[in-house]
Amino acid sequence: SSDLLNWLESFPAPFQFFSSIDSMLRMVGGALWALATVVMASSSWHKPEEERRLASSVNISVSSGRDGDGNVQIPEFWVDNTQLSVSTARGMNVAVLGADGSLSDFRVYDTHANVTESAELTAYIEGLSAGTLVLMAARDDGRGSLPPAARRAIELLGATQIESLTYRGAYALIGVKDGSALAEQILPVSGGLATVTAQYDATPQSAPEVLYSVVTGRDASTGNLVPPEFYVDGVQLAVNTLRGMNIVVMQSDGKTLADFRNFDTHANASDSEALANYIGGIHSGTVVLIASRDDATGSLPQSVKDAIKALGATQIDSLTYRGAYALIGVKDSTAVAEQSLAVDGGIASITAPYRVVEVTTSTTTTTTTTAYVAPCHLHMCPVGLTLKANMWSLDGDDDATCCANSTGPSIADIGVQSAGFQDGNAAVFYVGGKVIYTASGRGLTVVTLRQDGTRKTSEAYDTMRDGSDALAAFLNGLENGTVVLIGAKDEPSINLTTAAKDAIKSCGATQIDSLGFRGAYALVGVKGGVAMAEMVKPRTQGFAVAVGKMEIVISVETNLPLCEARSTHPPLSGYVSNGNLNLDAGCRYSLWEADAATECLKGSWIVITGSSNTLLEFGNLVNMLAPDEYHVEREGERIGASAVTDVIIEDGKVTYWAVVSNRLEVCRQVDKAIATQNDAACRQVITDHLASAPGYGSGKIRITMFISFFWDRTGVALDIVSADPAWSSSKVAVVTQVGAWYNVCSVTKEDYCPRSELLAMDRDPAIEVFKQEMEQVFTQMDSFCKNGGRAAALGCSVQTISWTNGLRDNDNFKIMNAYIEEAMLPRKSESFRVIDFFALGGAMPEEVVNGHGSQMLNIWMWQVMLGGMCPADLASEGSYAVWEGNLCSGTEARLDNCPIYAAENCPEKPGGRCEKWECMNSVPCTFRATAPPMQGNTEGMCDDPVNLTVSLLPEQEVGSMDSCHNAAGRRIRPWCASDAQWVLPLIFFFLAVGVVGYPYAWQRWGPKKEQPKKDEEAVADQNESNKPTEPVEMRPVVQLSPRGEAYPALMTSAPTGKSMKSLGTEPGSPGCSSSHISINVGESNSSSSTGAAPEKKPEDQADDNRGNAPDDNQQAASSSQPEQIVAVAPPAVPAAPAEAAKEEVAKEAKPAPKFKAAGNKYPLGLARFLASVHVVVGHIYAKGVVNESVFLFGWGFTWVPWFFMLSGFVLFSAYLKNPKSETMIQYVMRRSVTIYPLYAISLIPSFALAKSMGTLQASWDTLIAQSFLLQAWWPGWTESALQMHCWFLSCMVVYWFFFKPLAWCLKGLNLLKTCLLMAALFFLPWLVIIIPAMAGEDIDWYKDHRALKTDTALDFGVVMLKFNPICYMHVFVLGMLLAKLRGHLDKLATAAGPANSWRNPWLIAIQFIAPMGYFMLMLVFNIPDFKPHLWGYKLSTRLSVLLP
Questions:
Q1: What is the pTM for the complete model shown?
Q2: Angle between helices 983-1005 and 1260-1267 in degrees, nearest 10
């Protein structure tokens, strides 16, 4: 080619047509390509549409099964009449095709016998891209080891028949991932060959054009804002636009709205980062409409602009402050239309048509998903839930779709989402469903966590340039066990050194060496341990997501000293955990609930000056002292509505509310010269306004809000309050925060700034004005706040300017706050304090929304200031803050959480405003001060709540850890001291000894019961009977059955005389003929006329007592039916010899039918054993130890009430036969002594194991309660107790205590009353299901409860229903009634004739009703199709269903 070039260049100039060979070849090649393009277009694209489609379609066929002789046929895959050359084998054979029908991949999974390969099949299908064409065929058998998860995965290919596949059945499928199956067939083993055929066409089809329009900007003539409008085919979309960037995402049809979001890119850097993440997650080809409102550039970094360019944007870089921007874009394509105008450029209005592309098949249509549907791997699950294992194959943005139950209620996902420059340009860190940090810089960002899941440190290292050394130094300096999150943003790899990589590997990383240019990297690691999760993705491959788990434990320091709230500069730096302020200073503030604050502030006048943030503080204080104000619409509550708002509160109610309008011209805070002219008139208006308020009262609290954009108005407020005569007796406090509006005017230059002179200035000159005006007011406050001044008693609080979300604003506020600190340095005292509001906002940045504090932040501010105003002895007793309300925290700042505010203000009305910070301060929030909770979820009574050393390698574990100190070196339990560790076990030891020894001591040394007198007489009579005496006349006593037959077992004889009166044989008693009597008199119940009665052994006597003692019902019947008791006493007939009497009785006696009494028919040991086994299996089933597919195993918990019923049945049956004379306490002690020693002894090893393993959950009060078997009595104790399953015994103590009075009430019930009472008790527990059903609530309303939680009324109620003795009392009583019912049925069966005859109806009732009930239970336990969840089985079965 060089020779050719030399030859060409040797030509004279006129002949040198080309400057080089390269230019010549390019020209020739270009001409040839153009010619070829014209030829192809004329020969192909002029064909009819249908011909072109048929030419590109693919014919597919799949066969599977057996021939007519039953022989297995090898599966075949055909594409356009050509068989694919693949090697099939037993199980599922999977072929993946490209869009042109070519074979992309082929796999075989032995789903007949290999569970591992079935799991691999599941993962393979879930990893396929949407729209992938998949062919599947079974060979021999594909069902043997095909679990539900694999079948669900096959259904992702559009399959609908896979559940019907049987052993060795034929199965053929032509499917599309995340679409509909083109063809599918299943046949049984003898069904022959399954063959399916379909035609597939991936050619883009014509779709109707959709016309889009976007309008936004300002009216050029008036400068008024024109809210953004979005139109689709001429129809305006109903969306609520806000300041910043407003984003519309369309569905796949291009006509339906899929999602709408607003991102405040004017002042919120977090929103800007979220916008970049949001765009990064949108699927390619999605139509996206964007419109700016007001200003969208204040916090719009280049990285977010680059993300917008992914939608085809080309003009976003030219967008200026308050400029108008409109875009009709397509993700990863060219923009359809775009316009960017300057602030005075008028309205941006674009309109353009666009044709949406669809992918179809010949049998069904599979539309490529072009609408944005958030992928589940980017979803953040709340605490107690975790991302599903197949999150990469799921799309959704809700917990139900993406999350599964975690292993515990306090286990949270900790995750990192990372995307390189082209994939979203973000690094997001979250814990338990909440973002804790969003990376702001390029490279690798490192976040470390505290044990409660809060962010401890965060830093970005620019490893594209020179950040590797600092990164390595930081990681190498971390303590082993530290949880470390690392995420990449933009470009992290160019200068990532080997030393930095090694430092990352020390956190468990193994994939960091694979990180490439602009790749994504996410790590959840443990310093010195093994990584919980790690992922690397190359450029253009989307987000890398790493998700680990940790137990979120709220660590509460109970022994912190109180901070000195009246100090000149109270400490506020720290962090917030679970709503409580944890200060770096190591102290805590006293807490002030509404009643304590009211008591302190009675007779006081609180003067507040400032702008929107102090107006929120004003509203929060009013709402705290008078909670009803949340529901009252008041003038002056919103910024811009008032100049002065004056309020008086008395007895928790607002009794006076008056406003000076902000529209009053003389009080407008305008340029200095004009304001000076209006000063006197404005002062007079405000003075008259304050003078119209009711006079001072010692029980009144006055709060006056002066809107003070600039310092001058604060000076006016001090003068007017000083001169007010009506409230001269009141104590005064001043709270002021002024400064943000100097920044609003000079830096952000908002057009609503009323001082044009500041609008014309840059930042530094405006700050000088700020300093001069502040100095004047501080000089005035010197005398007002100190040395006997008007506010010397309660003091003045000068707040620094509030922390905000905007980086630029924060930088400016830091400068201005430094000047505040400087000016206050020589002035501050206990009554003239600096309150660092900026530091408090930095301690809880998630509580700041668009530069404004949440109710939680503002109430914490008041806690600090009230501590400086009020005597410490008036503070609330509690030291732990509890927040009640769904908008106490800024993390919940969503318009759907403030429906009343949203309905009234969003969408905005002309001249109105819709702001999230106003929304979050409009909903009731209650602050309570309580005792700090014990470490209910801690790892041990002395341990640090989270033991991260479990992730360390064995050789790296620290052997000398002091478990009695927390991370700050403070002891966290009194008994953890080295000289007091013996206290807790000693308490348990003496408790056990005392409980075991008490009954023994009482029996041995307690008072002895005297023997009844009648027993002494009986003994004397017995001694007398042993002597030879004259023959005694015997009178047999016989009890007759209802049919006139005698009960031999109940027959006795009694000597004549005095004792006969007790048997009803005195004169006047009914008599009967001896011919109607059968007498059975033996040696056991009669005495010879010539000798003493035979002596009985004690055990024989006991048997007689058990067998012959009539129950209380029989005695009652005897007294009510005397005709059944016949005393035979012929006076003139001498007694016959004993032997003769025996023979006579033997002749006349007839055997009576016998029927075993209640409780003896079936041995109960086997029933108890089977029920106990099921309970144990149910427990280990819940822990995932046994096979989860066995439906029966999950019902073990239902037997617990059966044991309550059984206890009532057995105890009452015994009582009816042999009632004992003892008190309620004696009965409880007698029963308890059989179970308590073993229970008490079991607690000791249980405590030791839990303590050593770091799993102790019981608090101190719980341990005390359960030592006395009280743990089931209070819901706060039950679920955290040691040996939690022993709550059953705690309930039994209650039932034993009430057993005696219950027995007395129930023993006399007849059959009808017994049945009616049983029916009532059967119905009672079903109210927990019936009432929610009638109210339209979910039947399983209790499902939201999580173990160890009693924070809400629902949690409290669920624990109460599941474990409290009151809620099972009806079950125990039902057991007693069953014993009574069985007694009645026994009598009826005996009276009905032959006891062993199947024709006896009562016998059938006794023998078959219970087995029938248990048979029905077995059906429910084993057949899922009964769908017990439809009747709330998890609660209803505990309370009722097992009782029959």
A1: 0.47
A2: 20
